[in-house]
Design goal:
The chain has 10 helices and 8 strands. It is of the alpha/beta class.
């Protein structure tokens, strides 16, 4: 298999819908028959296994420990399958193990994964620690999620400035209106002036799901559960941008 794409999702603060958006994109990629691996690098508060309602026998911590102790022999040992197309590497079950995970082993994990999957999706913590900075640097494309509120926008502005200072243009801005529906504090023109960048994608308030907790309990992905909804086109556009497909599909 050719080298896949590494895609990172980052939110300037918690509660912007980063994990839900990542999982929804995974569902869309799966429906395009792409093999997807989700790597949960929110090492102290990971939500992928919980959101997918799957028990992970091995986590990224086990991968690192086995690699350090020369016990590693097969990547599949640390991967939990969600279905035929979507799998994930879970964050540590004990958040105290996070400090024992060095980025050099994350690099090894990603390099071993990227030739076995079409897309590797990274879920990051909502702080700019060593893990998230590494993820932003390692990825082929970064999706920065923000909601329409001042704190979230200011945090994204700081990150956009960091990209600009380092002459990086591999990021896209997603405005997520679904987590605070019908609360448009700023116009898109205002947002552009605040963060210094255009909004590339907008997830509308119609994407808001009242029974989201029930979906999480059942481990269901929104783009699986609801085959037709207004924002399906947005996720298809993002998916085709990642895999290089026809943007008009």
């Amino acid at each position: 298999m050719a080298r896949g794409k590494i895609v990172c999702f980052y939110g300037g603060k918690g509660g912007v819908g980063k994990t839900t958006t990542l999982l929804s994109l995974a569902g869309t990629l799966s429906k395009l028959n792409k093999k997807v691996l989700i790597v949960d690098l929110d090492l102290t508060n990971g939500a992928i296994a919980i959101s997918l309602n799957r028990e992970a026998n091995k986590t990224i911590f086990n991968f690192v420990e086995d690699y350090i102790n020369n016990k590693y022999n097969d990547l599949d040992k640390y991967i939990t399958k969600y279905d035929e197309n979507i799998s994930f590497v879970a964050s540590p079950k004990d958040p105290r193990y996070a400090s024992r995970i060095d980025v050099k082993y994350i690099d090894i994990l990603l390099e071993k994964s990227v030739y076995n999957y079409d897309v590797v999706l990274i879920d990051t913590p909502s702080i700019l620690n060593e893990i998230s900075v590494y993820s932003l640097d390692k990825s082929d494309v970064v999706y920065l999620l923000t909601t329409n509120d001042c704190v979230s926008l200011k945090n994204i502005k700081n990150l956009v400035n960091l990209f600009i200072e380092n002459n990086l243009d591999k990021y896209k801005i997603i405005l997520n209106n679904s987590f605070i529906p019908n609360k448009d504090y700023f116009s898109n023109y205002d947002i552009k002036n605040i963060i210094g960048h255009n909004i590339d994608y907008v997830i509308s308030s119609s994407f808001h799901v009242n029974n989201l907790d029930e979906l999480v309990v059942n481990g269901e992905i929104i783009t699986y559960k609801y085959s037709k909804f207004k924002d399906e086109k947005i996720f298809k556009l993002i998916a085709n941008e990642i895999i290089g497909g026809n943007k008009d599909e």
